Amino acid sequence: MNTILRRLSIAGLAVATTLGASSAFAYGAGDWFTHFGIAKVSPKSDNGNFDAIGVDKIDVDDESGFAFTLGYRFLDHWGVELLAAQRFEHDITLDGTQMASTKHLPPTLTLQYYPLGGTDSRVQPYVGAGLNYTHFSDEKVDSGSLDMDDSWGAAAQLGVDLLIDDHWSLNAAAWYLDIDSDTTATISGESYDTTVHIDPVVVMGGIGYRF
Question: Any signal peptide, and if so, which residues (predicted)?
């Protein structure tokens, strides 16, 4: 009887050890990872004015599209991540009338801190700070032309990974981007300058994969 109990105990310990090993995610240094999903770019309200042509309020509309990130964890608690996306197209409203549009690419690089990095916690929050570069293209305005300069600015980030297994996770993240574009509108041969303050919050939900 004692022999049987001893064998059952050893078998139970082996099973527990195996299950424990399978739940250890080793979430930390040396991980390459990607996130991909849908991102919504929400510029702040009231993005400036164009007093030179009698426009009191410029508004840049929200837009959604596919986005992805690529990152590397060089320490358990520290990593870097690059945000990329398809081109977002925004309608631009002047004093309540949609009269212009632009497309932009907002690649953003952040240095990230993971407070629970190096543990087997299934919930892995992180914060980040870094730099955004925004490239504008295909600018249009009714009855004229529009030129928006590219922008460099600061970026801040919050996010969380909900780990499914050793490779897959659910991800939610948000960025604040400081985007200010010096803008020139040419109407009837006359050029007028202003600065458009877009400063969006980007919210992304999707799937993560660790290599």
Answer: 1-26
